[in-house]
Design brief:
380 residues, alpha/beta, Rossmann fold, globular
């Protein structure tokens, strides 16, 4: 069967987890052995982002539009036209980006934050709520399968969009494969004046829902109790950084809170490995990549007690109330490191890596191929 993977607009490294997921998805797809013919459709403004191989053909939608991609009707319909021209049998939308087509397809959902917490500016301003609603209302009803990472996320899809649970497949968010192979760059520790186990770490872009505010409040409590821990933030500004910096200044924590900005993957691994722990305070889920990355390199995980996070990590993390700084401060102060426990977490993270994720993706595709063998493919 001929499979079309829709990647959409290629994300930059500064986009954080979305970029990490895409890179690892493509790497695993290139390695995966299958009898299906594979086409990948993407949008890259700066020329071709990927090179085709004997097994995987990459198609840049912008290039195929021959200079007319800026015209809304061309941008909207180019994918559907190419799918027909290339005689694609089944489409798999790798990420929550949608371009309509008339082929059977599986659609990926990461979260329904605009429904769960519509008060956050990033899901309400600039018509974001309505844009997301338009996409999901178009994509979900006709999807043959819908992919989500946790049972909590599955329940959200069924509740908010009246979707039968039989259509929703749980394929857990994968641990990026590169964290198992990358060599850490410890020069970042000297650059930021950090000591091993001397800081808590939060890699997250500065969206409101990422809840950096709560971690600043937590650090103030820790300092008042005599702790010398620092707090390291990495990630780009998405509108909330100046507010957080103002809170840091107001609480006189400028020497304890470090805004490191964008870091390389090698520096990221070093920050995980040398941290007292990852403090993941997000107010939205249902699942995320950084806790899996941290586990993969032996970094303890403190994470908000959202149901999606509990579904994702089970007993492998220390959960805290993301609206209660005292709760997290107390758990940090009483935490006792257990290396045997952390090594079990490494095994868990490896069992969720990108290659295993791809196996589950193709299991879904093979099931659809078996179903579709009951009629003529490329049916007219």
């Amino acid at each position: 069967m001929r499979i079309g993977f829709y990647l959409g607009k290629v994300q930059r490294a500064t986009h954080g987890g979305g970029h990490t997921f895409e890179v690892n998805f493509i790497d695993s797809l290139l390695k995966y052995e299958t009898n299906h013919e594979i086409y990948v459709y993407y949008d890259s403004k700066g020329g071709n982002a990927f090179e085709s191989t004997d097994r995987v053909k990459f198609i840049n939608l912008r290039k195929e539009a021959k200079g007319f991609y800026f015209i809304p009707c061309v941008k909207k319909n180019i994918f559907s036209r190419l799918v027909e021209k290339d005689k694609i049998d089944f489409v798999y939308y790798c990420t929550p980006k949608f371009a309509p087509c008339e082929k059977p397809y599986a659609f990926t959902v990461w979260d329904l934050g605009h429904r769960v917490a519509p008060y956050f500016p990033e899901v309400s301003r600039k018509r974001q709520f309505f844009k997301r609603e338009e996409m999901y209302n178009n994509a979900l009803p006709r999807a043959s399968k819908i992919v989500i990472g946790t049972n909590d996320g599955k329940n959200d899809i069924c509740t908010y969009y009246n979707i039968s649970s039989n259509k929703v497949e749980i394929i857990e968010m994968p641990t990026p494969m590169d964290v198992f192979n990358l060599k850490e760059d410890d020069s970042i520790l000297d650059k930021l004046n950090l000591e091993k186990n001397g800081y808590i770490y939060y890699p997250a872009q500065f969206w409101a829902h990422k809840n950096h505010y709560m971690l600043v409040q937590t650090l103030k409590l820790l300092k008042d109790k005599g702790s010398n821990l620092k707090l390291v933030f990495t990630g780009s500004n998405q509108g909330n950084m100046d507010y957080i910096k103002a809170q840091v200044k107001e609480l006189n924590l400028e020497n304890e809170v470090i805004f490191a900005g964008f870091v390389t993957r090698n520096e990221l691994i070093s920050l995980y490995k040398n941290a007292f722990g990852l403090t993941y305070a997000s107010l939205l889920g249902p699942d995320n990549i950084p806790p899996l990355e941290a586990m993969a390199v032996g970094c303890p995980v403190f994470i908000s007690n959202l149901q999606g996070h509990v579904d994702q990590l089970g007993t492998r993390a220390v959960f805290f109330d993301p609206m209660n700084p005292e709760d997290l401060a107390e758990k940090i102060l009483t935490y006792q490191r257990n290396d045997e426990w952390l090594n079990l977490h490494k095994d868990f993270a490896y069992s969720r890596n990108s290659d295993f994720y791809m196996q589950k993706v193709f299991k879904l595709i093979d099931e659809m191929a078996n179903l579709m063998s009951h009629w003529y493919l490329n049916y007219q």
